[in-house]
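*** Backbone structure tokens ***
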Amino acid sequence: MKIGIIGAGHIGQALAKLAVAHGHSVIVSNSRGPETLTVLADEIGCSVGTPVDAATFGELVILSVPFKKVFEIKPTLLKGKIVIDTNNYYPDRDGKIADLDELRTTTSAMVSEHFSEARLVKAFNAILAADLEMEAVIKSDRYMRYLPIAGDDEQAKKIVARLHQQFGFGVVDAGSLEGSWRFERAKPAYCIPLDEVGLKDALKKAQRDIELPHGSWRR
């Protein structure tokens, strides 16, 4: 599959490495220009380009920029694309957003509204970048890490779920984008290694107005 990645931070790079390792054709981009990504290209064997290049190339596009930067991207750029939204809202980084702080909306609702013609799936936001690379290679009959996904397009979710499985992860479908807050920052399912039963339980336990202590998901 052709995969375009917009954002070359820790998550974007980890997903690029996994995608190339599993035979996908990948273009990685960032806001600073492809010339800043040559080391990454040489290291993992991907191509590099601009965000427009990545979006045009990808049958599937991974959006992995800081949340506040999402809305600087032209909305029509991702028209018709299957888009994996890896974003989380961090007020210290993104600035205070009243609609989120007061629970009037969700990050996925905001991203979906901005890219209204994209086929958005929330995924790969509830795992640390280091775990993406490490746990993807764990092969065990006794344990497989499961990750949540959410989206309104069932076919797009199936494609994203297959990508997870290729990378070595199980998948729990958490439903529509409306409920994707259940595995965002500071919820029980956020960045905690869980098997299928544990992840389903964590999603059920999530409460909209209750957050875990900041940083409790870091090991």
